[in-house]
Amino acid sequence: MLDLRKNKRLDVFNADMVKGAKFSGVHEFPLLHRTNYIPVMALPFNAAKRTMRLKQWLHFYIYDYFFESVWNMPDRYLPLFKKFKGVITPDFSLYINLPLAMQIWNTYRNRALGYWLQSNGIPIIANVSWGDERTYDFAFEGLEKGGTYAICSNGALQNKISRYYFVKGLEKMVEALEPDTIVNYSYYSKDIFDKYEKKGIIIITLKHWSDAIRE
């Protein structure tokens, strides 16, 4: 067994990030505490350093390469995260054409960073993402029922295939997590979300950053 504590340079797995965590039973994702925050505004991580409007949340609904450094060097960004109202946990991609092992790894990284943020006193909303039906076994693992969860419809409704997987995955998410509130970035589709609002789930739609800037 490799003892990463003896040499931090060996910890390319960020094992120290989940120190003290409890883990889920199947894939051993770090467990996140349920939260009930209701964000009003959010801006992308890659715009965080150049804004003076700090009374809002950070999100990662951008290309992965913009925030891979957060995984590699999380401590560097902790002072930045603490300036904002909270963080929607990173949206590492679960493209359906990625090998399933990579999709599980990206889900683990989402949970690990979420746990690390909570451990450092940062308010979070857990981002939930999924791919095709193969991901339903792990996409919702490590998360408590109820509370607030964030999803991203941006780019997910552009064609019939991606829309199908978004709609089916959302159904599975609601079934598995029973959220009180869903924070959706960034476009509201009435035919998708109306039925959940009728069930009593609060749907908060955060505007796309470019739209918010124009307004």
Spans where pLDDT lies below 50 across 5 or more residues: none
User: What structural class do helix, strand and pairing data support?
Assistant: alpha/beta
Helix-strand topology string: EEHHEHEEHEHEH
Globally, the shape reads globular
What is the mean predicted local confidence, pLDDT? 93
Q: In the residues, how many domains can be counted?
A: 1
How much of the sequence lies in strands comes to 5-15%
Describe the sheet with the most strands: 7 strands, parallel
CATH topology value = TIM Barrel
Helix segment tally? 6
How many individual β-strands? 7
Which assembly state applies to the chains in this document?
single chain
Distance between the termini: 55 Å
CATH class: Alpha Beta
The name of the CATH architecture is Alpha-Beta Barrel
Radius of gyration equals 17 Å
**Helix proportion:** 25-40%
Strand order of the largest sheet: 1-2-3-4-5-6-7
